[in-house]
Structures are given as C-alpha cells and as structure tokens.
C-alpha cells in the first residue's frame, strides 16, 4: 500500500478540526480586550453579561447544528456534510473581521457553534468508517490533537497580532480544507448502505492505497466481503431481532450520553475558554496570555501522547488513569484557591495554578478528552451511528452551554476553588463509570465491540 497516501487520511480531514480549534481558542486572548476600554467594537467595552453570552452562544449554535448535521450525514453522506462544516467557520471569521457590534459577535459565535457541531460529529464518524481496526484509535485521537493545535494557534496569534489581523489570517483555514478535502471519497460503509457497492470498492481502494497487484486485490476483496457481511448483519438484526437491537442501541446511547456529560462537567472546556482570566484571578505571577499559551502547548503534548499510546494501551486503563490524575490536579488548584481566599500567604506557591492546570490539561488530553469521542464512535452501532451520534453531541453542547455560561456565576457563588473541587469530583466519577460500564474496545473490530455489548445486555 502507498503509505504516504494512507498517512494523509487523518491529516486532510482534520484541517477542519484545526480550523475549529482556532475558533474555540479565539475567545481566551480576545475576551479581555473586548471588555477593556481598548475594545475594537464601536460601542466600546462589552459588559460582563454580554461577555458570558459571547462565550456560551457557541454551545447554543452547536446544539442546533448537531441535529442539522446528524440529519445531513444520513441524507447526503459523511463527505458532503463534512465539507459543509467549513461554511459556518468561514462566516465566523468574516463576522469577527468585519463586525463592529456585539450583536455581530453573537451571530459569529452561533455560526462557530454550528460548525463545531458538524466537526465534533462528523470527523470522528468519518475517521471511524475509513480507518483500519488496528489504527482506528490513533486516527480518532488526532481529532483532539488538531483541535488543540488550533486552540494554541489562536492563543499565540491573539497575544502577538491584532484583533483584525488574526481574523484575516485564520479566515483561510476552512477554505484550504474545502479545496483539499474535495478529492477524498465518501466512506465505504455509507456507500454500501446505499447499495453503491462499486463506489464503495473505489473508495476503499483510494483510502488503503490498493493497487492492481494480486496481493492488494485479495486484501480489497477480503475487506469488501467483511463490510458487506457487516451491513447485511445490520439488516438481519433489524428484521429478525428488533427488540435486541433496540435494547443494545438504548444502552449504547445511554453510555454515550453519560460519557459526553462527564467530558464537559470535568470543566476542561470551560477552563480553556477562560484560561487567561482564571490565571489572573488565581493570582499567578505569570502573564495571563503567556500562561494560556503554556497551557495550550502542554495540551498539544498530551494530545500527541494520546495518538502514540491509544492503540498500545487498553482504552479503559488509559481513561481511568487520566481521570484519576486530572482529579488530583484540579483538587490541588482548588486547594490553592481556598488558602488564598482564607488570606493565607501563598506567595511561595503561586506556581501551583499554572502547574496544576497545565497538568490537568495534559493528562486529560492523553485520555479523558480524546477517548470520549473515540469510544463514542466505536460503541454506537453503525445502523444508528448518525442519529445516536447527533443525540450525544447535541447533549454535549447543551451541557457545555450550561458549564460555560454559568461558570462565572458558580465562581461568584462557591469561589474558583469550589469549582475546581466540583470538577475534581466529576473526574473521579468519570473513571469509576468507565471501569464499571464501558467494555474494552482497543484492537477490536466494530462487530466485536457490538457483540461484547450485546452479551453485557443479555447478562
């Protein structure tokens, strides 16, 4: 097989993940500017309430977008729908570049959320359906890696470039994705479900780099036979054992809903949105924007580590260990904040906020954050993956909205230290939930995972 071509499978689809990361990371360096007297808006500084809406409206847009892209993925296919995610991201940067009122920023964040919904739903889905079983976890974890790289790009550009120049430059990323991804095929699984077997065979040849040699033709036939049997099995299950399929889909969906809830209630997305402000409030000696850049870089290191070990270590162990250590880091940060609130002299340990949050983001990026989407795409049965994935992703954004919107309110009510302790407890709960309810998926085919979960249901 052409290894260079196979390697680009995850690079090009994840350009849109990179673009989304820049849209998400935009808020942290520029929110302090928007609320300052140097605000680029005609009306001057935005209020605290307006700032929370700017932060949280992305999640509202994503909630609606998830339903739209979930429907589109089944109606028009994975490829066409993934291409469409670039449009709202282009519009987001256009609004930021040329908008002069807070209302335009509201629209911009809604559009960013619309694009985020499609990217979070469709990139893992596309990767799962094109990847070989032995590297599915690795390719799936690149989604979070590219997302985090994009976030860091925004942190750095926001610290060294102007508000408008940042938007002009990042406007090009979704356009590059559109141009490059056009050559990629629809997923073989989707094509077979639409009875387009010849197209599915052509897609598989492109994705695997198969040539006309006898060995490659044999591998192509073997993989096509497996996909045909899988799709035929889905139809048989629907026709012959609809109650069993419904029970299995219901359990997989419930596990997925809990997974995405724990992913957001761990606080990592809120911490990324308010990174600069958190460090300023925590009394860190490091410049807030520089601290955000440090955290973003560490997040990338963790995400890259995940791509290396995700297919070498059991998924369960990796998820549980990362959740446990993330809980420790959040507890340490909360303890520092509590001591400071009690007027204890913490000047000698003012490095703790940066160190703790950096450690949390690193360890969560290794397991807790990327594995949520890898596991979710693996446990949902192919027959309901589009609908189930859209329901779980919509629920993720609903929880994310509540966390991001009301994080400042919770800081006022229970203090930053109280929020860190709550997030710590959630991380512990995530590890426990995974240990009890989620089967191991590493190295297993989609069919084996389905059978394992069906056996759990029967027992």
Describe the structure.
- The protein is an all-alpha fold.
- The chain has 2 domains: about 1-200, Growth Hormone, Chain: A (Up-down Bundle), CATH 1.20.1250; about 245-459, Up-down Bundle (Growth Hormone, Chain: A), CATH 1.20.1250.20.
- It is built from 21 helices and no strands.
- α7 (about 100-130) runs antiparallel to α8.
- The longest helix is centred in the C-terminal third of the chain and has 53 residues, at about 385-435.
- About 55% of the residues are buried.
- Mean pLDDT is about 85; it is low at about 1-5 and about 235-245.
- It comes from Anopheles melas.
- One of its GO terms (molecular function) is sugar transmembrane transporter activity.
What's the total helix number? Answer: 21
- Based on the structure, what is the oligomeric state of the protein chains? single chain
The 3D shape can be described as globular
Hey, roughly how much beta strand do the residues contain? under 5%
Low-confidence runs (pLDDT<50, min 5 residues)? Answer: 1-6, 237-244
Q: Please, what is the average pLDDT?
A: 83
CATH topology category name of the largest domain? Growth Hormone, Chain: A
First-to-last CA distance: 42 Å
Percentage of helical residues?
over 70%
Structural class: mainly alpha
> Radius of gyration, rounded?
22 Å
Largest sheet: none
CATH superfamily of the largest domain: MFS general substrate transporter like domains
Number of domains: 2
Q: What is the name of the CATH class of the largest domain?
A: Mainly Alpha
- Strand/helix succession: HHHHHHHHHHHHHHHHHHHHH
């Amino acid at each position: 097989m052409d290894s260079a071509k196979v390697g680009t499978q995850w690079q090009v689809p994840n350009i849109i993940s990179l673009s989304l990361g820049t849209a998400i990371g935009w808020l942290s360096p520029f929110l302090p500017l928007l609320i300052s007297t140097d605000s680029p808006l005609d009306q001057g500084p935005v209020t605290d309430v307006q700032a929370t809406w700017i932060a949280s409206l992305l999640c509202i847009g994503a909630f609606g977008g998830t339903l739209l892209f979930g429907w589109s993925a089944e109606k028009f296919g994975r490829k066409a729908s993934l291409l469409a995610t670039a449009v709202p991201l282009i519009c987001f940067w256009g609004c930021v570049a040329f908008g002069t009122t807070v209302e335009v920023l509201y629209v911009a964040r809604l559009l960013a959320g619309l694009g985020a919904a499609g990217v979070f739903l469709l990139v893992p889905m596309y990767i799962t359906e094109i990847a070989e079983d032995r590297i599915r976890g690795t390719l799936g974890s690149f989604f979070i890696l590219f997302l985090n790289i994009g976030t860091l790009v925004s942190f750095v550009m926001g610290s060294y470039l102007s508000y408008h120049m940042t938007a002009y430059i990042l406007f090009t990323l979704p356009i590059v994705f559109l141009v490059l991804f056009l050559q990629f095929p629809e997923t073989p699984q989707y094509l077979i479900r639409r009875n387009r077997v010849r197209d599915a065979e052509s897609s598989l040849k492109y994705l695997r780099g198969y040539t006309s040699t006898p060995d490659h033709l044999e591998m192509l036939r073997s993989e096509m036979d497996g996909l045909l049997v899988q799709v035929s099995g889905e139809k048989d299950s629907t026709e012959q054992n609809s109650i069993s399929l419904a029970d299995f889909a219901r359990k997989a969906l419930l596990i997925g809903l809990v997974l995405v809830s724990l992913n957001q209630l761990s606080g990592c997305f809120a911490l990324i949105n308010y990174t600069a402000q958190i460090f300023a409030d925590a009394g860190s000696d490091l410049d807030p924007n520089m601290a955000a850049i440090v955290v973003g870089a560490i997040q990338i290191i963790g995400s890259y580590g995940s791509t290396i070990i995700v297919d070498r270590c059991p998924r369960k162990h990796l998820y549980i260990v990362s959740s446990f250590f993330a809980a420790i880091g959040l507890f340490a940060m909360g303890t520092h904040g509590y001591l400071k609130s009690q007027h204890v002299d913490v000047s000698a340990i003012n490095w703790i906020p940066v160190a703790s949050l950096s450690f949390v983001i690193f360890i969560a990026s290794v397991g807790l954050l990327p594995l949520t989407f890898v596991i979710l795409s693996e446990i949902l049965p192919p027959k309901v993956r589009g609908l189930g994935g859209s329901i779980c992703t919509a629920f993720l954004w609903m929880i994310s909205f509540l966390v991001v919107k009301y994080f400042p309110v919770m800081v006022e009510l229970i203090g930053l230290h109280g929020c860190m302790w709550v997030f710590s407890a959630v991380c512990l709960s995530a590890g426990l939930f995974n240990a009890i309810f989620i089967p191991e998926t590493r190295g297993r085919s989609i069919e084996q995972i389905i059978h394992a979960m069906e056996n759990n249901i029967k027992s």
